[in-house]
Amino acid sequence: EDKVVQSPLSLVVHEGDTVTLNCSYEVTNFRSLLWYKQEKKAPTFLFMLTSSGIEKKSGRLSSILDKKELFSILNITATQTGDSAVYLCAVEKRGYQKVTFGIGTKLQVIP
Amino acid sequence: DTGVSQDPRHKITKRGQNVTFRCDPISEHNRLYWYRQTLGQGPEFLTYFQNEAQLEKSRLLSDRFSAERPKGSFSTLEIQRTEQGDSAMYLCASSRTGDGGYTFGSGTRLTVV
Hints:
The structure holds 2 protein chains of 2 kinds. By secondary structure, chain A is mainly β.
């Protein structure tokens, strides 16, 4: 069965800190890994990663995938209180539309 | 609002009643997905439509659940004879073929009492 494991489950940091969120996966016929940010409502799309070693960047957020070791990290630099959310990692398989999500990492950024 | 719309936002129902939720995807998106999310968990896949065709269904989707997407536009998810275990957030998402990632709606929170 496909698995996505995220760590840590929760994290509390001060504004300005840098955080690294981890995602490991086991899936057959891997196609892509996705990161989402979920505040109180719907998850919002952050990144899609398909190739190893290529960093995707958006402002203070960046992410990279290692297909050999089957993991990805999401980095957030200079954290702000608005970064407080649950960050979800998910994987897509070739030939299927189903996406398997992890439980998420709950990040709290305190002033 | 040109995002994914879901209606209602909240639904409280008594056990044994039927409920129906609606999702209006982004208009140019041909793919539509239903997910269910319970507290402290990630979203779980329920079903997928490409245009009007339902192409994937999870084993989670018991025979009490049915989804439709007539004419390939909006979709409905019906739960018959609701049980307390059906209490969850039901999320709809849409995408276009070739796009990376989905756009999710704000969800319908179902509480079965």
